[in-house]
Structure formats: structure tokens, C-alpha cells
Amino acid sequence: STVATAETSLTILGGGLVGSLLALYMARRGFPVQVLERRPDPRLAGPIEGRSINLALSDRGWRALEGVGIAEEIRQVGIPMYGRVMHDQQGRLTSQPYGAKDQAIYSVSRAGLNRTLLDLVEQQPGVAVRFEQQCLNVDVRNRRLELRDVPTDTVYEQQYSRLFGADGAYSAVRGALQKTDRFDYSQSYLEYGYKELNIAAGPAGSWQLEKHALHIWPRGQYMMIALPNLDGTFTCTLFFPYEGPHSFAALQTPAQVEFFFQEVFPDAAPLMPELTEDFFQNPTGSLVTVRCFPWSYQDSVLLLGDAAHAIVPFYGQGMNAGFEDCTILHQLLGEQDHDWQAVFDTFERQRKPNTDAMAEMAVYNFEEMRDRVADPRFLLQKKIESKISAQYPDQWVPLYPQVTFSHTPYAEAWADGQRQDQIMARLMPHIHSEADYDQPEVQALVAREMAAL
Ligand code: FAD
After folding, report:
1. Residue with CA at minimum distance from ligand 1 atom 38
2. CATH 3.40.190.10 for the 2-45+110-186+289-364 domain, yes or no
3. How far apart are CA 78 and CA 228, in angstroms?
4. Which residues pair with 198 in a beta bridge?
5. Using a 6 Å cutoff on CB, does residue 236 contact ligand 1?
6. Is residue 313 lining ligand 1, measured as CB closer than 6 Å?
7. Could you tell me which residue ranges the FAD-binding domain spans (predicted)?
8. Which helix (H) or strand (E) holds 127?
């Protein structure tokens, strides 16, 4: 009946990556779903240009896509990256695998992934996606949304019975929860911004750098990274201080940008023919971490994805964590038979320590990528860690593969990683080369550490 439909219907605010995947999960469970999205339908913008912005998709994200049967389709258009390639200031390269031989993270187009998800959402019976609907306000007590129809600039109200806030780092739903009793909230910005730039394709759409890698130009206080696209280009991201001697503030003219890139990224600069246009046309993005709790209001509102836990991008886990939210919510619904209050309570209690840990790891990895990966001692340490892991596979899974290639809760992975760091701090003073690992006294130290783990 219509009454039952109204009561069971779900409203999802935000048709981005997490909102559209959540819509798919919920529609396939048989709920009527309405998605409200501020932006125009991205599928009407014509074919995706080659230079679409990409993201690193890893195992937690893949599992969530497998849950709705679309992992294979996405994998077809993803590019596996098996490790990092570091570029020093003389253009010399070093590399570091991400995990075991066949383990890779995948570079996928953000727009392409969002479009694929939206196509599938709209094929589901009982789902309506409404674009260009901006949420201005949420009255959580009376379950009412204040919306603006963007094309006509008309404001109207709409009731909901259950609302999912998948509206990103600057969530309007979270904004409404902030006005409820005992709601914890914090946000913190890095003193760094980011700028997306491009490396051109070579002849006949070839890749001018190693295709199957994530490239890093670590420079101590800043860095640039690049991920491959299908058309031979790479999307680069410069992570750079807002202020200071090397900063956005210090680069004001095309000539300054050209000079700076030729000096500090000498092997990349010649591959970036549109550098100065990109630099001055593309916006400078900021990098925020958002923490809040609770993520729910009674049994009627739940936050997920960036709306609940926005993190800085250095572990490539923001979307993956948001997709994992969908997997976990789906599992809990299965177990708890639609007692929404119980599901929301369990969900936020289970997820919060994990996304907090992920937020910390993301900041930690920034220091590693921009600074430590350029240090030969650090690279030696990573080699020793993989030897330990090969010798004691049950006791030692390094942090990166645990986060990226496992489903171990983030908080457990982070605790393991911190224990491993302490052990390495004790071992490394005894190790000066890879061969030292096989010395009897080093082997004895390692054995003692493993016994204590
Ligand atoms: P969003 O993608 O932000 O989607 C929110 C949606 O809600 C949008 O479509 C928006 O238009 C809509 N919306 C917002 N407000 C309203 C409103 N008031 N009314 C109606 N609609 C609204 N993650 C990875 O896993 N791997 C990576 O490699 C990676 N790289 C990144 C690189 C950078 C530079 C950045 C900034 C992030 C990166 N991330 C990465 C993180 C990832 O982008 C986010 O975690 C992910 O997009 C979160 O998805 P979401 O759906 O929760 O939010």
C-alpha cells in the first residue's frame, strides 16, 4: 500500500560515490529509494574527457562493488598499480612494491565510476534520482528537508521517513545534527592545499612514465603524485603549502611556475605542456579531516562516507572507507532484520574507532610519502620489513598491505603498524644493509621480537 511505501522509503542525500552505491544496495534489498543530488546529472555532460580525475581503488572498495556485482565491469576500465615509483630531483627512479607480486591498487576515473553507479541505480525498480536538488536545511525532529530546485531557484519542503546523509565532507545533514544535544564535532585543515595537473600522453596514446605504478616526487615539505589514465595521460596532484618559501603564495606568475617545476620536477616538467594553464585555471583544493559522533539521530538519520568521516587523501582510502560503510551497513541489516535503531547504534559504534584510526593513518602517510620515501634508510627498513614478513607471515603483515589489501578493521591494522614501528626502531640500529638481515645476531633479535609479539 502507499502507506507502507512511505514508511519504508529511504531518502539518500548526495548522489556521489557513496550515495549512489548505498542507493544500489538499498534498492536491491527492496526498499523504495529516493536520491537527491545538488549537481546536474553527470551523464548528460557528454562522453568523459581523457583527463578525468582518478582515484585509487583497493580491496575494501572492491568488496563493496562485488556485493552489487559490478566489480568486474569497473576492473575492466581500471589500471593496476603494483607499487610506487619515486622520482628524485635528478630524475633518478627507485621503486617499492605495494604488497605481494600480484597485489595492486587500481587507478579508476572518478566520473566514470559515478556514472556507472548511477546507471545501475536508475535501472532498479523503485528508485528515483533527482538531480539539481540542493538541501538547504534538515529539521530532524520533524523529519523535514528544506530543498532548493536549482534550475528554478525554488525552495520547497519535503518529508522523509529515513534519511541517509551521503552528502560529503561539508554535509548539510551533519550540519543539522550539530544542532542536536551532545553532538561532538571537529574539523582540522592541513596547511597544505592541492592542485590537479596533467602529464600528456606520448605518441599514439602511449604512457610517458611507467603505466602500472603510482608516481611520487617526494620533496620533504611537499610532493607531487601521478596516477595513470586509460588514454595515456597521467593526472598529477601537487600537495603544496599555502604559505612559505615553496608554496602557492610564492608562485604567482607563469614564469615562476615554469622555473619552479623545471628545477624541482625536472623529469616531469617537459611532459606537462599545459602546466601553467592548468596551474592557474584549476582550483586549489583544501585538505580537511572531519570527526563527529554520533552518526545517527534516533532511528531516522544516518551519516556515512565523507559526511561522517572525511580524511586527507594520502592513503587513498576515503572512498574505500565510504564503500566499506555500505558493506557493513548491508551486513548489519541482514543480521538485524530492519530494527533501524539497533542497526544505526551498532554501525556507528563499530565504525567510528576504525575511521578515526584511518584518519590518523592518512596524516601519517603524508609524512611518509612526501619525506621518508626519499630516505635510503627508510627504503632499507621497508626491505627488511618484507623479509620479516616473508619469514614470519602469520605474525607480520606490514601496515600498507593490511590497510589496502585486507579487510582487517582499520583500528587493528593501525595498532599492528604502531607495534611494528616500535620493533623496527629497535632493530634498525643493528642493520646497515639488506644482507645484515641474515647475520646470526640480527636473526636472534628478530626471533626474540617475534616471540614477544
Ligand atoms: P562526495 O564524493 O563528496 O559526494 C557527496 C555528494 O553529495 C556530491 O555529489 C555532492 O554534490 C552532494 N551534495 C553535497 N551537499 C549537498 C546538498 N546540500 N544537497 C544535495 N547534494 C549535496 N579516496 C580513495 O579511496 N582513493 C583515492 O585515491 C582518493 N583520492 C583523493 C584525492 C583527493 C585530492 C581528494 C580530495 C579525495 C580523495 N579521495 C580518495 C577521497 C574521496 O574522494 C572521498 O572519500 C569520496 O569522494 C567520498 O564520497 P562521498 O560520496 O561520501 O562524498
Report:
1. 313
2. no
3. 9
4. 235
5. no
6. yes
7. 8-360
8. strand 127-130
Single pTM value for the model: 0.96
- pLDDT number for residue 101: 86
1 pLDDT more than 70? no
C-alpha of residue 145 to centroid of ligand 1, in Å: 21
Pocket flag, ligand 1, residue 237 (CB < 6 Å): yes
Whether 226 is in the pocket of ligand 1, judged by its Cβ within 6 Å, is no
172 lines ligand 1 (CB under 6 A): yes
Q: How many Cα neighbours within 13 Å face the side chain of 57?
A: 27
Q: What ipTM does this complex have?
A: 0.99
Place of cell 556485493: 67
Mutate to test the pocket of ligand 1, among 43, 55, 324 (most ligand atoms within 8 A of CB): 55
Neighbours of 230 (CB within 10 A): 19
The answer on pLDDT for 205 being more than 50 is yes
Please tell me the total number of residues recorded for the chain in this structure: 453
Give the residue with greater pLDDT, 315 vs 48: 315
337-370 pLDDT, tens per residue? 679 999 999 999 999 999 999 999 999 999 888 8
Beta-carbon count within 10 A of 77 CB = 14
* Mean local confidence (pLDDT), 143-155: 98
The percent of residues in the chain predicted with pLDDT above 90, rounded, is 92
Check if 148 has its Cβ closer than 6 Å to any atom of ligand 1. Answer: no
Ligand 1 pocket mutation pick from 36, 150, 167, 239 by most atoms within 8 angstroms of CB: 167
CB of 134 closer than 6 angstroms to any ligand 1 atom = yes
> Is the dihedral angle over the CA atoms 330, 334, 335, 340 positive or is it negative?
positive
Look over the chain and give the mean of its residue pLDDT values, rounded to a whole number.
Answer: 94
Q: What is the mean pLDDT of residues 215-242?
A: 96
Is the Cβ atom of 165 under 6 angstroms away from ligand 1? no
Alpha-carbon distances of 233 from 197, 209, 239, rounded to whole Å: 11, 9, 19
Residue extent(s) of CATH 3.50.50.60 domains in the chain? 2-45+110-186+289-364
